[in-house]
Each structure stands twice: as C-alpha cells, then as structure tokens.
Amino acid sequence: MPATRDKWRTAIAYGDQHAVVLRGYDLQELVGQVSFAEAFLLLATGELPPPGHAKLLDAMMVSVLDHGIVPSSIVTRYLASAGSPIQAAVAGGVMAFGDTYGGACEQLGQQLAKHVVEMRAGRETEPQAAAAIVGHFVALGRKVPGYGHALHPEGDPRVPHLYRIADANGVTGDHSRLAFAVGAELLRAKGRKLPMNQDGAIGALGLDMNLDWRLLRALAFMPRSAGLAVHAVEEMTREAGWRHVPDEEITYDGPPRRPLGRG
Amino acid sequence: MPATRDKWRTAIAYGDQHAVVLRGYDLQELVGQVSFAEAFLLLATGELPPPGHAKLLDAMMVSVLDHGIVPSSIVTRYLASAGSPIQAAVAGGVMAFGDTYGGACEQLGQQLAKHVVEMRAGRETEPQAAAAIVGHFVALGRKVPGYGHALHPEGDPRVPHLYRIADANGVTGDHSRLAFAVGAELLRAKGRKLPMNQDGAIGALGLDMNLDWRLLRALAFMPRSAGLAVHAVEEMTREAGWRHVPDEEITYDGPPRRPLGRG
Amino acid sequence: MPATRDKWRTAIAYGDQHAVVLRGYDLQELVGQVSFAEAFLLLATGELPPPGHAKLLDAMMVSVLDHGIVPSSIVTRYLASAGSPIQAAVAGGVMAFGDTYGGACEQLGQQLAKHVVEMRAGRETEPQAAAAIVGHFVALGRKVPGYGHALHPEGDPRVPHLYRIADANGVTGDHSRLAFAVGAELLRAKGRKLPMNQDGAIGALGLDMNLDWRLLRALAFMPRSAGLAVHAVEEMTREAGWRHVPDEEITYDGPPRRPLGRG
Amino acid sequence: MPATRDKWRTAIAYGDQHAVVLRGYDLQELVGQVSFAEAFLLLATGELPPPGHAKLLDAMMVSVLDHGIVPSSIVTRYLASAGSPIQAAVAGGVMAFGDTYGGACEQLGQQLAKHVVEMRAGRETEPQAAAAIVGHFVALGRKVPGYGHALHPEGDPRVPHLYRIADANGVTGDHSRLAFAVGAELLRAKGRKLPMNQDGAIGALGLDMNLDWRLLRALAFMPRSAGLAVHAVEEMTREAGWRHVPDEEITYDGPPRRPLGRG
Hints:
Number of helices of chain A: 11
Largest interface: A-B, 92 and 92 residues
Helix content of chain A: 40-55%
Largest sheet of chain A: 3 strands, antiparallel
Oligomer: homotetramer
Shape of chain A: globular
Number of strands of chain A: 5
Structural class of chain A: mainly alpha
Radius of gyration of chain A: 23 Å
C-alpha cells in the first residue's frame, strides 16, 4: 500500500492554548458533568450517548476489571518483576488480549455488525443471518466465538446478569437479538446447548451501543489495564528478586548433549 | 537479586469454577452495584472507598481520556497504520507515558507520600516537608515535577476545577495540602509563581484516595488507553496505506556519501 | 480453546548450574566457534546449517539493519523521547512490523511453503503452484505480497544482489524458484511487470534456509532491533525535551465547538 | 521540558529513491561486503570498526542468543499463546530486559564510561576510579551490578572465555581494565571474591568497542530477540490452547469472602 500522508487529521479531539476539545465539547466542561463511560462513548461514537448506555458500559467495565492470575496479569507481573516501569508492564499485559485469549468479542462482533446491516436493508431475515454467521465459522473450521463455556454448559450466569442491566437501561438491540438467534441456530445445527458467553454478550452489547466492531476488544483490555496496574504494584511491593520458573518445572526434549567438534 | 519464587500469590483477586472474587467480593455482585471507579479503588486499596472518592476519580479519568494528536496517540496510530492489532497499537501508546512525558505525578507523588508519613509521625511540619521536597529536586538539578505550565503562567485552570470536585466530595487531604505548600515554597524560593499543574493535582489527589504512589502514573495511562483505542480505529478506518514521513521533513546530517572500498 | 498446560516444555534450550545448552550444544562451545547467523539457524531449525546459509543470512541481516526515519524508528524515537527506557522504546518499534508494513515476507512465505510441499509430493507442477498462489491473493482482493516496487518498476535492484549471494552460497532452492515463477505468472496474468521485491526475496530465501514461515517476519524485525536501539540513543542524546507535532500540522475535522448544556 | 521539535534530524541513515545510506555508505555496497556485526558497529559508532571488534561482537551475540525458559521467553510465549502476532510477542519479551533482570551491564557501564573519562584526563588513577565506583553503589545501598554469581562463587567461567576472544582480537581496553580493578576493589573492601560476571564483561567490552553506555542493554536484548522469535514459533506450533496457570499454583491471601450488602 502506498505511504502518502504527511500531516495529521482527526475528528476525535484537539488541544490549543485555550482548551482541549473532544468531539466539539470543551473537556473542562465535561469533567464533573459527564461520567467517564459517557465521555468514552462520546469519543468513540461522536455523540453523547442515551443515558442508559453509560450505565451499562460502566457495569461492563466492572465485569472485566480483574480476574486474578491470568495470562495478562502474569505477563505484567513478569515485566514488573524484571524491573521495567509500570507503563511497560501494563502494555505487555494488554498485548495478551490476542486473537485466542481476548478476541472472541471482536470476531463475533464483526459478523454481527455485517449481518445487522443486511437485516436492516431487508436483504436477510434474522434466522438467515444467524445461519450465515454459524456457517461462516464452520467453513473456517472454527468454533463460533462467543458461545459455550467449559465450566457452565447450561450457560454463563454473567450473561443474563448483563442483559438484565442492558434491558433496564434500554440498550438491548438488533445486535443482541441476532446474537441470541445465533445461539438458537447453534442448538439446532449442533444438537447441543452452546449458549452465549460473556465475551459474546460484550461484543453484541458494544455494537448495540453503536461502537465500531474494531473497538470491541478494547472493552476488555481498557478496563483490565486498571487491574494490570494493580498487579504490577503488588508485584513490585510484595515480591523480592525477579520472578523465575524453577528448573524442575521445565522439560527439555530437544536433542541430547552433543559435541560441536570444532576448534 | 535472587530468583526464588515458583508459585503465584496475590491478595487482589482469584477465580474458580464458581466465581471471580475481588478483594473478598463476588465480582458478579459488584457488577451493576458499584461503579467502575469504586471497583478500581477497591482493587487498588483493598477496601471499598468512601462515596465521594469514586466521583472524583471518575472526573479525573474524564480529564485525561484524550488530548488529541499527542505522543501517545501518534505512536498508537503509527502502529495501527502498520497493521499491528489494536491491543499492540494501544500498548505502544501506553508506553509513551514515560518519565519525561507522563511521570510527573508519580515523581511528585513519591515525595508527597514519603513526607506525609513524616508529618503524621510528628517528625516534620508542613513547611519543613515542603522545603525538603523542593530541596530534593533542586539537589537533583531538576524542576519540581507537577508545577508550572508553559501556557498558563498564572495557573493551570484545570487544577481549581478538580479541587472544587475534590472538596465537594471530601477527598482533599494531607497530600493535597502539602502539594499546595510546595507551590508556596516554590514562590518563596524562586521568587516567581510556579503553581501546581494538572499532573501535580492528579498525583496529590490520587494519594488522598489512598493509592500507592507507584500506581499514580496509571491514573493517566489507564483512562487514556480508551482514547488510544479510538485513535487506533480512526486510523484504521479513515486513512489508507501506511503512515510515513515525507523525505523533505527529514534532515540527514551524518557523514556524506563515501565509497566502501572493498570487494 | 482449552487452557490445559501448567508446565514448560521446550526443545530449544535449557540452562542448569553447569551450562546453557542450545539444541544439544554447550553454549560456551558455540561462543567463538560458530557465528551468530549459524547459531540462529541452529536454534531455529534444530541443526547447524550448511556453511553457506549463515553467510547469506548475515548479508540479509545487513540489508534490513536500518532504513533511517521510517515508521518503526519513528515509534522508537517518540517512546525514547517520552522517557520510557530503551527496551520499551525498541519494543514499540518492533511492533511496527505489522501486517501492512512488515508482513509481506510472511504472507508470501506461508503460500510458498504450502505449495512447495505440494510440488515435492508430486501433486502440483511449478506453474500450477504459481497460478494457485496468484489466485489465492486475487480471490482475497489483495495484491500479491512481495512483488512490485513503487520506485523500481523494472525491478528492485536489491533482489538480484541477494540472489547473487544466495547462488554463490548454495542456498537458492525450491521456494525461490517458485517465487520467481509467481513473478512470471503475474506478468502473464496482469500483462505488466511486477517483479519480486526485497520482502519477497527474504521470504523465499528464509524458507530455502529451512525456516518456518511463521518466523520469516523476524528476519526483518530482529536485525532492525539493532538499528532501533541506535535511534533510541540518538534521540536521547541529541534531542532536548519531548517530541511533539506542532499544532499547525494537525487538522481537526470533527464537530465544531458546541455547548454541553448541563450543570 | 519543552516540546519544540517538528521535523526529523538524524545522522544514522537515510533513504531516497536511489539508495539507503548508512553513515555515508550505500547499504547495497555493505550487503555481502561487511558482516552484520561490523554494520551494527558502523551504525552505532559512526565508523567502520577495527577488524577484531566485529569478531568479538558476533561472539557476544551468540552468548546471549537464548537461555531457554527465562522471564523474557516466558512473556513471549504467553503472548504468542494468547494469539498476539510474533512482533508483539517478541516485543513483550524484549521488555523483560528491565533494570533488575537485564540492566546490570548498563548500570555498570554508565559508571565505567564516566570514570574512564576522568582517568584519561588525568584526574583519577585506576584505583581511585575503582573505589569511586564501588562507593557509588554502596552509597545507594545496592550491590555493584555486574559482579558475583550465585552458582559460580569462584567466577563466572564465561568471562575468561569472552576475554580470550577479546584479547585475541585486540578489543580489551581501558573500560575492561577498570572493570577488573573494580573486582579487585570489591575483594579488598568486602573481604570476599565477587568476580565480574557475564553482564559486567558485556558492559565493559561494549564500551571498549566505543559504544555509548545507553546502548549496552541492547547487546543483550537485540540478539535475544532472535531467540524470542524461535520461542514464539515453538509455542504457536507445539502447544494447543492458551497457556494458563492451574488454580492449585495460585494462593489468594486477600480478604475472605464477604457480602457486598447493597442492592
């Protein structure tokens, strides 16, 4: 692809000697008047959201704030232990939200967004869209991301809890309805329950809040960056030395010792 | 330092097949009942905060959500433009909160925390503590971090705004009082106004919310990670090709062309 | 996907109180006896390479050592300027080797590797394989990565130079021959010259040195990490303050100033 | 610090439509004529090095290529396992070269560089310089970085090996001599052997090759980035699912379960 740009262009925000302006609003006017969740939705969608959206988003942020010792916090703690500063330790942990570990909401969300466009244009019914989404992932030889949970075969209890809040705040919309239809299609096609899990719910509800599907992964790693910072500080203050794995937990199964036969 | 640890130990959170537990509370119970700012303060300090603290923290998070095209967002946009995924692009931007660009609140905060301990133990008065802090940075040949603003010689207008919210919510405490005393000492010692700026206020107020000084830098980069994610998506969706600097903006002032004289 | 592993298993290297062992060889025996390029190929392929391979790899490493002010070095310099340490500044620059900016050798290499397997099994001829590769990218609506160069329509002069070294050292093999056949097929299918560029050559030659296609991108970012470190130090030592973009180079085209109308 | 710069200035390298030029030399002329180690020293110091320097640097790069399952490779493998791309996984591992785990050569090197300047100016003798360096770290309450080894109280065997190569290639110089004098001073001051370890040797020899002390840490993480890339690919190709720590290896010692008492 060509590299043609030299200057910066943005519709998000700018600052000058008088003010920082976010999507047209003076940041100082926002501070104290709108909540962080509202301000984030303003930044992400271009407009202040309906009142209930920020309440749901704040609750979703709590739901992913921290899950204890998991891949992202392990990475952060190794980096903090090695003596890199907190911004680098947290950055490393954020990178653990890769396609395998943190990408389900984005992968499902991309499909939901695409097919809701089709449905709204009258080119697909909801059952057709649901079948197309399941078919998309089956053709790739992959499980449908955002469905099923190893520990909760009858259903991730966090999902109805999030939807109670979403319904009460008027957020639940076309993307969520399609996401539930995908769950029904999975039951029909596979003959067993694979209900939507929390990743799927976050993806669908993020779209119902008018977020771009490319931003959905951030709904996990942005709040988690707060948890990762707390892990970094706990590692710095409670653990001595640098963290390592003891030899007995490592198996080497490469070639046995051999001479180089040079020199 | 020795590398002695093999297992994981944390007082922050854990998850098992039944629940994720944060500082003793079931995460599901927190979702919808406590705000993200409350939950973060719970995670960071070990206890649910007094009610006003979360209101101030939420306002502080808005104040740093995004400042437009600045070093952190520039890094994120270059990485997004080069085709690295959003978690890597945001991680890169978070790393821009280094000692020069984003470290003032931590550098000041470390000193405030240390001297408030001395004051509370009756070993220092507030003026002694303020003079010690100014002296600490003067001895290092550095400006006192968190004071002065190139565009606002009479004072950063964001500071009184934050303190109106802090006062109204009962947060302002010993660290803030000492921080203002440092400003008075700077006026006395240097003979000119160097009032506290927003970085200083965020450091002092973070300590007044019982945060560890090592965590203060996260009060900037954690909310900003949300803004960085929005920049990444704007770059991905609005700009074609990969971002580069045109040749005419680059000056090479190394050795002139010369032959290798080998081969 | 399930998370089932608890212990570490590797065939690459291990260390104990007596030695570090790489693929069976005592690291101390390697130091001074084998070159870095040889040692890297040992590590990557499991065996010491034929003599010529390391000579070519060393030359390839020189070819990507540094290209001046480009996206990767820009990111590194912003991070160094912001006061993050050199390991974080270089890490940020490495992340600029994303799918758009540094991924061509990997994207082409994955296809070359797959089709050489088919050719060696007698299931495809070289022209069939070349046509399949062109067809693969055409079906995705993408240019074939590793071919064409905006500044050198008649051909990237670095390619014949690398192949002179590769031929002289006995490296050029099936993957390179298929890569040239892809160039011929492009000429046939598109009616214009789109000769292999340096990214394509690095991908094909990396495979001819028995590297896994997943490792090809590292042939660019690993040597470049040396160049990035030099950029970080030049930024730290030659430039004062923190690097920023002046306001006049930024265009804000979002909503115009508007009142919040709250409070 | 002020943010005053708008344009790019470098003495390292530039590229135009005709060539990439490194420190005055056409990169294409360098490819195949100078080794990677030579080219790196050219880039870092501004001039082609004496012949022996590149031989030693190449050997030093081998000595740090890979050490198996250690903090840096653990971080890389967690990130690769989580599905972030290889450039992000390696970047994370590079960040493990922090002040505690990978900074000894830089911390010692900064002092060696400073005091060799004093010695060359005739303001200090070697014993005075050595005593000053030991005193510097004692005053900070820290061990002298680059000396002592838990497993080799009589001396790290890698050090004499590196110095055999350094001596044979005419590299050993003032910085190395001062580094050995620091070891003698440690014996005198502490009454026990704390001989220079590999980190110390790499720092001293890097300075004897005319590298800036700020660049010394890169002598470890740059070659290691090659090893990290191999670990990333082994993780991607040999291990299924995403890597996690089993619950029984995690101890939670925070507050016991408690009710929220809201709602």
